[in-house]
């Protein structure tokens, strides 16, 4: 038995937060925490994520000053900001600021001419007070300040280097250098050279702001204007107390503090659980097409990113009903969409009642993202419309859902043939069995339906749309139309799915009751999908259809109380699929025996109106 251990807690923590590198926390001058988001096109240049309000393409700009915050990317590696006739290489983008290198200088030098920088400010940018200067060859030592003579920075070779300066000056001192001055101000003290550091790294930080007269309606709800520090008559947006974000309507906006704490607590809780939990690979085959019974197919675990609500709204045409794949309660509503880069996605909206629900959902997104199974749909990321409305973004296939194929929806005029349906059933059962019995703690779907099974171009499945509130619990208590109760499990839901695969329709809410009656009276042909041409099939294939119907009946009758496990179902389906290659068919327990052993069937017979609707 193979066991794969997740990485240690600290390493996992680093990896996850790199995966969510679009959500970064920086600090303003007052050390207030601010979320910085990528721009709406999620642009990058080399290793730098381009964050709001900066952009490369004009169409990706969010404010009414596209040229002011427009950057250029040379050789796909070096980002530049043009100010007047000078071009400055961008080293980093922070909240309210952008760190640039000295113009035209790409060699590693300790000091630069005090007149070489060439920029002192305009209506959008100013030299930030966060910069600490090292000055050389100053004739007047009164410019020098105590406490910044030594500073540990990253040198040009990216190694730690302790820089010793005989003279240094933090711009926050403001006794000699004033806002609006350029670095040439220090030439009056006889200084010939200078260097600049910000947050322990080489570079010059420029503060950015918007002119007050041109800033109407740019702040988000719960955001308000604050004055810039070094940009005359410039303003930026800030969140009210109790909220966190960049304050801009087209940026992160303002989110409630409890959401941020829930995200952190949920992430750490999930990471701690993952770091302590080995993922165990079993000895059975989870891929029906694989002849090696000891092989399980895996893909690399996905790294989620943060999406903006505007991205999802655009992708789904405003969450139009025509884009809806699933309309559920436990798993939430799921819409199909296409991102700006052409990627097809499925977007699951999860309703959270309180902070505890949100924390639970976040931690389970983390866990699902770490499951490297090829038949579990990749989670691309998540989004938060408000303090308690998370969205989960899955990778989606242009070949649609199983439900669409069974109902011949959209452009899918031809249905699935019988062998394709067998493969889909076996892949689904084996994947669920893996999640429930080969991962500890087990993962249950709790929202299994044909609309949450995606098909790729080869009709191989991807399972999505998990019920994120309780997917580590094996069953849930449900009520039928007569006021009675029964336990609903993934096995029970899979029984309904099998009936839909046989019947070729997902629209008959009374299918379980009708199917059980036909199966018992051996009139299965009356519910089999007409496109399968039951009476024209060879004997062994008709027996397979009856066997699948038999398994479906046992899932409904015995799945709720645990007498039939998903592993049992998966093994039977895998064997049937393999046998179908040579034309044989092995029956499970006889249908008569199945029904005679079921006290639940007697209840159904006595209460014909009892509904097992999906």
Automatic annotation (TrEMBL):
Q: Where does the Protein kinase domain lie?
A: 319-574
Pfam families from the entry? GUB_WAK_bind, PK_Tyr_Ser-Thr
Q: Which domain of life is it from?
A: Eukaryota
Which molecular function GO terms apply here? ATP binding; polysaccharide binding; protein kinase activity
Where is this protein primarily located? membrane
Q: GO CC terms for this protein? A: membrane
What keywords are assigned to this protein? ATP-binding, Nucleotide-binding, Signal
Q: How does it sit in the membrane?
A: Single-pass membrane protein
Concerning SUPFAM superfamilies, the annotation shows:
Protein kinase-like (PK-like)
InterPro entries for this protein = Kinase-like_dom_sf, Prot_kinase_dom, Ser-Thr/Tyr_kinase_cat_dom, WAK_GUB
Signal peptide residue numbers = 1-26
Compartments it resides in: Membrane
Q: Cross-referenced PROSITE patterns, in alphabetical order?
A: PROTEIN_KINASE_DOM
Q: Which Gene3D superfamilies does this UniProt record tie to the protein?
A: Phosphorylase Kinase, domain 1, Transferase(Phosphotransferase) domain 1
Name under which the protein is recorded = Protein kinase domain-containing protein
């Amino acid at each position: 038995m193979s066991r794969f251990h997740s990485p240690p807690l600290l390493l996992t923590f680093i990896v996850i937060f790199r995966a969510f590198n679009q959500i970064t926390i920086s600090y303003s001058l007052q050390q207030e925490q601010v979320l910085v988001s990528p721009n709406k096109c999620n642009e990058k240049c080399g290793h730098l994520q381009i964050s709001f309000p900066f952009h490369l393409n004009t169409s990706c700009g969010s404010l009414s000053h596209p040229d002011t915050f427009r950057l250029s990317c040379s050789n796909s590696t070096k980002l530049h900001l043009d100010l007047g006739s000078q071009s400055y290489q961008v080293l980093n983008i922070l909240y309210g600021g952008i760190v640039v290198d000295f113009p035209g200088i790409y060699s590693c030098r300790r000091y630069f001419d005090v007149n070489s920088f060439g920029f002192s400010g305009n209506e959008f940018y100013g030299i930030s007070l966060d910069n600490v200067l090292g000055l050389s060859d100053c004739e007047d030592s009164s410019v020098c300040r105590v406490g910044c003579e030594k500073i540990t920075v990253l040198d040009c070779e990216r190694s730690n280097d302790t820089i010793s300066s005989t003279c240094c000056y933090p711009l926050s001192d403001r006794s000699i250098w004033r806002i609006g001055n350029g670095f040439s101000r220090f030439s009056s003290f006889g200084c010939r050279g200078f260097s600049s550091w910000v947050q322990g790294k080489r570079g010059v930080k420029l503060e950015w702001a918007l002119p007050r007269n041109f800033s109407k309606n740019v702040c988000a709800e719960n955001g308000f204007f604050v004055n810039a520090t070094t940009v005359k008559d410039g303003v930026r947006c800030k969140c009210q107390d109790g909220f966190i974000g960049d304050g801009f309507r087209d940026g992160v906006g303002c989110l409630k503090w409890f959401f941020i704490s829930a995200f952190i607590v949920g992430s750490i809780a999930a990471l701690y659980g993952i770091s302590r939990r080995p993922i165990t690979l079993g000895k059975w085959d989870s891929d029906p097409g694989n002849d090696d019974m000891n092989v399980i197919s895996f893909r690399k675990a996905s790294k989620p990113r943060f999406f903006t609500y505007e991205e999802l709204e655009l992708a789904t045409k405003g969450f139009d009903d025509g884009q809806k794949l699933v309309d559920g309660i436990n798993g939430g509503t799921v819409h199909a969409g296409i991102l700006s880069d052409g990627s097809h996605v499925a977007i699951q909206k999860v309703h959270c009642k309180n902070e505890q629900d949100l924390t639970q959902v976040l931690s389970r997104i983390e866990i699902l993202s770490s499951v490297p199974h090829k038949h579990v749909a990749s989670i691309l990321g998540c989004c938060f419309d408000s303090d308690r409305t998370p969205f989960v973004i899955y990778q989606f296939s242009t070949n649609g859902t199983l439900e669409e194929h069974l109902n011949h929806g959209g452009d899918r005029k031809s249905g699935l043939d019988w062998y394709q349906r067998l493969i889909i059933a076996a892949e689904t059962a084996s994947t669920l069995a893996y999640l429930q019995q080969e991962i500890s703690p087990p993962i249950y779907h709790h929202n299994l339906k044909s609309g949450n099974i995606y098909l790729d171009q080869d009709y191989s499945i991807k399972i999505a749309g998990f019920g994120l509130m309780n997917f580590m619990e094996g069953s849930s208590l449900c009520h039928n139309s007569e006021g009675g109760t029964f336990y609903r499990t993934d096995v029970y839901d899979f029984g309904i799915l099998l009936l839909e695969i046989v019947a070729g329709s997902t629209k008959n809410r009374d299918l379980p009751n009708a199917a059980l009656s036909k199966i018992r009276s051996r009139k299965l042909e009356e519910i089999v999908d007409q496109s399968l041409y039951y009476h024209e099939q060879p004997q062994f294939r008709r027996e397979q259809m009856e066997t699948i119907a038999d398994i479906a009946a046992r899932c409904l009758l015995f799945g709720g109380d645990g007498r039939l496990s998903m592993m049992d179902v998966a093994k039977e389906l895998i064997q049937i699929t393999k046998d179908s290659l040579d034309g044989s068919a092995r029956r499970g327990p006889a249908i008569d025996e199945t029904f005679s052993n079921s006290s639940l069937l007697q209840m159904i017979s006595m209460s014909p109106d009892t509904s097992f609707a999906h």
